[in-house]
Structures are given as structure tokens and as C-alpha cells.
From TrEMBL:
Name the record gives this protein: MscS family membrane protein
Domain Mechanosensitive ion channel transmembrane helices 2/3 as annotated: residue spans: 328-366
Family, similarity comment: Belongs to the MscS (TC 1.A.23) family.
Highest taxon, organism lineage: Bacteria
Record organism: Methylophaga sulfidovorans
Length: 586
């Protein structure tokens, strides 16, 4: 589906472009065209030697003879013999080709001088090739010294041809060699009462109305068919469920504009009318083309967004939005170039003329390039992905979107922070979402009256809970009696969870702490509170308890007694074995 839509769009767009910004009517209406797009249209026309009137006319006839033999690209050489400086650049190509065909047919209809009769070096600064009641066909040198058909002659040639074309048999005979423009052939078959009118001839008004109607019908029909196609695709493929039914509506507008463009070239409108209408239609084609390309990019984005959401890696979640934005930037740039080309605007000269704004542009480009390279850093180094929990400077939250200019982070207060990508190249990025394990470090404070044996059993019970919990790390955990606190005996608890996200971590931490609490209650281990105990000693009643230590005991005897007690305790807890490094149960 996507491939077919892209192919359709490119096929329509290719019909719109040719040298000079015109359109190929034959490609759209399906009839023989005298202004068809040839391979040589995109190549510069070879400069001819036009230093004499005889050479100019000879070159024109030679080029049109090649056109008669089927080489349509040769018409550009014929047009190069015209001085089209008075014709608007927007319609210069169409007018030049149409005038070349008319002039060649005039030469076939009338008796014109032979080449040998044309002077090589006229004594005056112009040479009159043909005189008629409707005007003269004159050649005169331009600023470079080339002899060209004058602007006045170019303007008079259509009237001269209309005056000479009353004999239809003679007209058919002349046009058999080089076909006449479609507008001329249409006009020849139009009744005489339709050839008058206000501003335009009546048949041209009727033609404009029919072109508008046909274009509007094509727009509605194509839009309906594309809408129906999208609906069917959404029904059979879940990848397109998020798309609007009218996502391809601009393609219908572009088809309508292209039909209007081609139709205007078929009516032989006056230069002023053709210029106004053609500019409007070209702008409509440019806008609808950019709009259509944007919608096709949206389809591409919808298709691949659903596809990458089913993959395990998060890299494609970051890549698809950036490709989509790149394509939209490309579409805008190409659309501007296309529109400028159709309107004969020199984009290079326009940018070069912004001399006063050069400094401001350079300063703006600095930040622009910084943000661009920041986005490349994110794309290539991959410090984070969409959905990761990151800490960048004083901003902490979940990565929501990465663009060419900025990155958007949704904080835990549900606010949205937009951060320029240039910061990412110089700021430390702490990716909390990339942690393999999530750590908890705390101390369990038990009361001082807890027996050592109970502390040993309590610590071992916690170790067993760690081994039984599925998300807890089994190869690295620490549970040991660690410190004598001011009001408690402190047990170090140092554990890890291998959880995919923060929510799972909170759940597993909750389960673990509750299990430790249940274990403490079953073993009757009491947790200490920050308290102070006041001990009041009263006189002893009865016989005092005998003590192994007495004031008369020497230091050596006291040391010996301490050593004996220590050896007894260690002998009970350790024995003769030497413990090796800590190993975790497998």
C-alpha cells in the first residue's frame, strides 16, 4: 500500500516538472502534445551562431525541420532565435514553443524570401522578413550582436497566423508537417460567433468552465476512492487504525490543480490572463504537492510506529520519529525549490541578496547546528531511548520525544520540559532506565536485648527470602550484623532487583520488605526505636553474686581470662576451619 501510494505521488509529481516550469498536457489529457517533455529539456540549449539574419532564419528552419522529422527536442533551438525578453518568464517556455510552431506554419502558408535573397549584412539595424496587414516579422540584433526575431514580431505572429488561416485546406496542408498548437487547432474548429467576446473569446470562457468542472470532478472522485481505500485498509490491517480516513485528501487537490494547469495551456489565452491564472495554479500545485507528501510521510510514520512497537529493542522507537521528521524537512525544502522553480524565482540569488541579514543568520545557524549535532549524538551514541528515566542536569523524568532541535522530557510532576539538543553534547546524562539492577541499601535496627543466636537466624532467614524472590539478584547481596548503634543493633541489608521498570521495582521492594517484617514477627525479633533508658541501681539484698574478676587480680590474669573466654566463643562459632570468600548459593 505504502509503495503504491509513493509511486503514484512521484508519478504525478514528475508530470509537473519540465524545463522552464511548465507541464506536459499530453501526459494528463492523453492527446498529442506539441509542448511535451523531452530528455533535452533539462539540458542547456547549445548557443547557436546567429550573427546574420540569413543564418538566424536558416537555423530556425533547420531546427523546425528536425521537429517535423520527430525530434521534438530541436524546438528549443528554434525558440533560441526569438527575443522573448518582453514575455514573462513564467510563460516564456510555453509561448516560445507555440510561437515557433506558428511561425513555421506561416512560412509554409505564405510566400517568404528564399535564403539566398536574405542579406548577410543588412545596411540597417533591422531586417523585415515578412510584411502583412496584421504586422511585420522583423529580425534585429540584440546586445550581444545576435540577430533575433524581435519582441514585436513575437507578439504579432499569432494575429498574423489567424489572419492567414482562413483557408482550412491550406491550413491542414501546412500543419501536416509540424502540428499546430492544440489551442490553434481547437480554435480552427470553433464557430465564428464564439470567437468574439469580452476580455476572452467565448469559447475560451466555455473552456475555462469545463476545465474547472472536470478538475473538480477529478478531485472529488479521487478523494472518494482514496478515502474508500484507506477505510478498507484500516479494516484489514491494524497498522493503519490511527490514521484519519481523509489522510490522502490533498492528492485529489493536486490532481485537480494539475488538470487545471494542463488545461490552461490548451486554450491559447492572452499573456496577461494566462500569467495570472498560471501563477495561481502553480501555487496551488506546490501547496497541494507539499501537503500530499506530508500526508504520505504520516502514513509511513503510522505504519512503522506500530511495527517497531512490537520489537524488543528501543532504538527503532527513537529512529522512526527522527526519520519521519527528516522526511518532512526534506519535503518542505524540495517543495520550496519546486515552487520557486515553477515561479521562476532564483533561490540562490534570493539567499545571496540577504546580505544585511547574514550576521543574524550565522548566529542562528550556530544554535541550529549545535542542536542538529546534539540529535546526531543521541542517534549514534544512544545515551537513552524513548521511555527511559533520565537525569540531565537538574531535569529528571521520562524521555517522551527526541527531535532535531530539542528533546522533550516528562517530569514526575507531569510537566513537559523541552531541552535543546545542543545541551546533550556537553551535559552529563544519567540514564536511570539503563540500570541492569536496582539497588536498596538500608539498615535494620533491632533492640539490644536480642540474643546473638536470634540475630544469626534472622539474617539467614532474610538471605533465604532473597533466594526465593524471583526478581532479586542471587549473585550479589549482603545481610550482616554491621554496627552498634546508639540505641540499636544494626543489620546491613544490601540487595538488588533485576526489574524492567520502576513500577515493577516498587512492587518487588514492597513484597520483599513485607516478607522481612513477617519473618521478624515470627522469630520475635523486635525493631528498636530511637530511645534512651534510665537505669536506677538500688542496694543489693542478700549475698552478692560471685564474679570471676576481683580487684586483686593482676593484669596478666585478666588478659588470660579474656583470652580464654574469646577462644571459647570463637571455638563454638568457627572451630578450627578458616572461612573462604563469600560464595552465593546457586
Amino acid at each position: 500500500m505504502i509503495t503504491r501510494l509513493l509511486f503514484f505521488f512521484l508519478m504525478i509529481s514528475s508530470l509537473s516538472v519540465h524545463a522552464g516550469g511548465g507541464i506536459n498536457p499530453a501526459a494528463i489529457v492523453g492527446m498529442p502534445s506539441n509542448t511535451s517533455q523531452e530528455k533535452a529539456d533539462d539540458e542547456p540549449v547549445e548557443r547557436l551562431n546567429l550573427t546574420q539574419p540569413r543564418i538566424t532564419i536558416k537555423q530556425f528552419i533547420k531546427a523546425m525541420d528536425r521537429v517535423a522529422d520527430g525530434d521534438n527536442s530541436a524546438i528549443e533551438h528554434a525558440v533560441s532565435t526569438f527575443d522573448l525578453s518582453d514575455v514573462s518568464p513564467l510563460i516564456r517556455t510555453e509561448r516560445g514553443r507555440e510561437t515557433a510552431r506558428l511561425l513555421y506554419n506561416i512560412m509554409q502558408i505564405t510566400k517568404t524570401p528564399k535564403l539566398s535573397e536574405i542579406p548577410q549584412k543588412p545596411k540597417t539595424k533591422q531586417y523585415t522578413y515578412l510584411r502583412t496587414d496584421k504586422g511585420d516579422i522583423v529580425l534585429q540584433p540584440d546586445e550581444q550582436g545576435d540577430w533575433l526575431f524581435s519582441p514585436e514580431s513575437i507578439e504579432a505572429i499569432p494575429d498574423i497566423f489567424n489572419d492567414l488561416s482562413h483557408n482550412k485546406e491550406l491550413l491542414k496542408k501546412s500543419s501536416a508537417k509540424v502540428s499546430l498548437p492544440i489551442s490553434v487547432r481547437l480554435r480552427s474548429d470553433i464557430p465564428d460567433f464564439l470567437k468574439s467576446g469580452f476580455l476572452l473569446e467565448y469559447w475560451q470562457w466555455i473552456g475555462l468552465f469545463l476545465i474547472i468542472v472536470i478538475g473538480s470532478i477529478a478531485d472529488k472522485t479521487l478523494a472518494f476512492l482514496l478515502k474508500l481505500r484507506i477505510k478498507r485498509r484500516k479494516h484489514h490491517d491494524a497498522l493503519y487504525t490511527e490514521l484519519d480516513d481523509d489522510v490522502l485528501r490533498p492528492i485529489g487537490l493536486m490532481a485537480m490543480a494539475l488538470m487545471w494547469w494542463s488545461g490552461l495551456n490548451l486554450l491559447g489565452l492572452p499573456d496577461t490572463a494566462l500569467l495570472i491564472l498560471l501563477v495561481a495554479v502553480k501555487i496551488l500545485v506546490s501547496i497541494s504537492g507539499i501537503w500530499s507528501a506530508f500526508r504520505l510521510v504520516d502514513i509511513f510514520n503510522a505504519y512503522w510506529t506500530v511495527r517497531v512497537s512490537k520489537t524488543q529493542t528501543k532504538y527503532d522507537d527513537l529512529l522512526v520519529p527522527m526519520i519521519t521528521k527528516s522526511m518532512k524537512v526534506f519535503v518542505v525544502v524540495m517543495g520550496i525549490v519546486f515552487a520557486a522553480d515553477n515561479l521562476n524565482i532564483d533561490v540562490t540569488s534570493l539567499l545571496a541578496g540577504l546580505g544585511l541579514g547574514g550576521l543574524a543568520f550565522a548566529l542562528a545557524a550556530k544554535d541550529l547546528l549545535g542542536n542538529f549535532f546534539g540529535s546526531l549524538t543521541v542517534l549514534m551514541d544512544r545515551p537513552f531511548h524513548i521511555g527511559d528515566w533520565v537525569v540531565i542536569g537538574d531535569v529528571e523524568g521520562m524521555v517522551e520525544e527526541v527531535g532535531f532541535r530539542s528533546t522533550r522530557i516528562r517530569t514526575f510532576y507531569n510537566s513537559l520540559v523541552t531541552m535543546p539538543n545542543s545541551i546533550l553534547t556537553t551535559t552529563k546524562i544519567d540514564n536511570m532506565g539503563a540500570r541492569r539492577y536496582r539497588r536498596m541499601l538500608t539498615k535494620l535496627a533491632v533492640t539490644y536485648d536480642t540474643p546473638p543466636e536470634k540475630i544469626e537466624g534472622f539474617c539467614e532467614g532474610i538471605r533465604r527470602i532473597i533466594q526465593l524472590h524471583p526478581y532479586m539478584r542471587k549473585d550479589n547481596y549482603q545481610v550482616y550484623f554491621n554496627d552498634y548503634g546508639a540505641d540499636s543493633l544494626d543489620i546491613l541489608l544490601y540487595v538488588f532487583w533485576a526489574t524492567p521498570d520502576w513500577n515493577t521495582e516498587l512492587r518487588e521492594r514492597h513484597r520483599f520488605l513485607l516478607d522481612v517484617l513477617r519473618l521478624a514477627r515470627q522469630m520475635e525479633v523486635e525493631f528498636a526505636f530511637p530511645t534512651q533508658t534510665l537505669y536506677l541501681k538500688r542496694g543489693e539484698n542478700g549475698v552478692p553474686k560471685a564474679s570471676p574478676y576481683s580487684p586483686a587480680m593482676s593484669q596478666e590474669e585478666a588478659f588470660a581470662k579474656g583470652h580464654a573466654e574469646a577462644e571459647s566463643i570463637v571455638g563454638q562459632t568457627l572451630g578450627d576451619r578458616i572461612p573462604g570468600p563469600v560464595e552465593f548459593p546457586r
